[in-house]
Amino acid sequence: SALPWARAPAAVLNFNCMLILLPVCRNLLSLLRGSFVRCSRTMRKQLDKNLTFHKLVAYMIALMTAVHTVAHLLNVEWFNNSRQGVYNNLSTALSNLEDDPDDDTTFLNPVQITDIKPQQIPTHFVFTSIAGLTGVVITLALILIITSSMEVIRRSYFEVFWYTHHLFVIFFAGLVIHGIGYVVRRQTKKSFEEHNPFFCQNRTEDWGKIPECPIPQFEGGPAQTWWYVIGPMIIYLCERLLRFIRYMQNVQYRKIVMRPSKVLELQLVKKSFKMDVGQYVFLNCPAISQLEWHPFTMTSAPEEDFFSVHIRSAGGWTDKLIDIMQKLPAGAQGPKMGVDGPFGTASEDVFDYEVSMLVGAGIGVTPFASILKSIWYKFKDNNPKLRTRKIYFYWLCRETHAFEWFADLLKAQENEMEERGMGDFLTYKLFLTGWDQNHANYVMVNVDRDTDVVTGLKQKTHYGRPNWDKEFEEVRKENPTSVVGTFLCGPEALAKVLEKKCAKYSDVDPRKTKFYFNKENF
User: Fold this and answer.
1) Rounded to whole angstroms, how far apart are CA atoms 160 and 423?
2) Among 45, 104, 360, 385, whose CB has the most other CB atoms within 10 angstroms?
3) How is it placed in the membrane, per its record (predicted)?
4) What is the rounded CA–CA span in Å between residue 485 and residue 166?
């Protein structure tokens, strides 16, 4: 009676296992994003939620696996009881059928062992049958994958998350093999025509003796999982092949710079490499690990003849990379670097809006560095395709040193806008969320200076966190009939706040201000 509870989750599992690989096929997503460039913002934004979708599918796989496993454990227990003759004559007769060509019989009950203790039979069946053994393997692989994907492990022990996640290879291999054990069986079509189960179920002693009730014949159904997963598996293999080809392509170091707050800037050159604003790449350094690939947003502009990334010290792989680069002699080339990408993000759409709000937290400013640089080049070249007429930029940092590497770019932007009489094009606000009393005293003494004591910019640094209600209200008043794109590269908690503010300050009237929220996802 638990068979439907096993089969229905199995069907759901097949469908979800078909979907689970697609959201992490980043080249496929970039291709789709390019194909949807003329489609609505809503359609393109769905592609930016690929990791959220990936997690939801994983949760469903975990839930259905649990239901499927419990149902089959009950089935095995009841199969065993039936084999021992605990139930009625029909179940006993069906369980006694065996694969015997001489007697022209086929089994229905997969529990065929009778020479060990009855209480040991379920365990023996689970660990000796193809279905049972592969079920144990894929369940253990799934448990390890899901537990190592928890936020606390992913943030603190990324290597554990990365390597454990590759158990998906074992998971999919076991999944494809799982169905070939033919545990779930059915009466053959020919046997059903000759042996009517409704007529013969109460005449088990007459099976094979009267023409109306020949001995029933059974067969296993075909394994179906591979029908679902073969397509996504081929697409994913193509993704990995493309990554390997890109890894083999030569990458040259143009410049290696150590910035304040243990931020490493790498300027790299790769033949035929083309990027767009806000995109990211995966980096692999074989000197540290042959297998680990880490995503980094590019801080360079498409107009430049190189691409750059800023890498903050965050433990593990990043610390090792920074240590290697710091030990290099001046002007030397760094270790071999594999580059996969570029891949599209929500920030690519920034120039589709007349007004944009850019919010970066800490190192999360990197995609906006690319955007601001690109704007600078577009103004310099008098690019007529630039639709954007106003940008609001917010940067939240815990320490003053973090502002230093980005301040030069903002100074260049300030000067460029003033020279062109477009001082109102870029409004930026820097928020320092951590400081001590000595710093506060220093600021008070220099409060009358024309430039900020922290950044040297004309715009003074704000202390504390932004009042987002005030900021959104100000943007709405200054742009009463505009569609405003709000872009964030920062923590999830801030994303929830900004998404709510976008909904709160969007006007119902489509002719008035409308805010669209976009977040970077890796």
Assistant:
1) 49
2) 360
3) Multi-pass membrane protein
4) 36
Strands 185-187 and 218-220: antiparallel
Compare 76 and 102 and report the one with higher pLDDT. 76
User: How does pLDDT run across 255-306, given as a tens digit for each residue?
Assistant: 998 877 788 889 999 998 988 888 889 999 999 988 888 889 888 888 888 9
DSSP string covering 350-385: GGGSSEEEEEEEGGGGHHHHHHHHHHHHHHHTT-TT
Give the pLDDT mean for 188-205.
Answer: 89
Closest CA to 135 of 91, 57, 75: 75
Query: What DSSP character marks residue 278?
Result: T
Inter-axis angle of helices 130-147 and 121-128, to 10 degrees? 80
DSSP states along 51-65: HHHHHHHHHHHHHHH
Model pTM? 0.79
What is d(CA 90, CA 202) in angstroms, rounded to the nearest whole number? 7
Judged against a pLDDT cut of 60, whether residue 39 lies above it is answered with: no
CA distance 254 to 319: 21
Q: How many helices (H) and strands (E) does the chain have?
A: 19, 14
Q: Are 196 and 207 in contact (CB under 8 A)?
A: no
Query: Which amino acid is it at 293?
Result: W
pLDDT above 70 coverage of the chain, percent? 88
User: What is the dihedral sign for C-alpha 465, 467, 471, 472?
Assistant: positive
Nearby residues of 256 by Cβ (< 8 Å), 6 or more positions away: 264, 265, 266, 267, 325, 328, 334
Which one is predicted more confidently, 455 or 18? 18
Q: Which residues are paired to 485 by β-bridges?
A: 356, 516
Decide if 216 contacts 207 (C-beta within 8 A).
yes
Q: At what angle do helices 50-83 and 89-96 cross, to 10 degrees?
A: 100
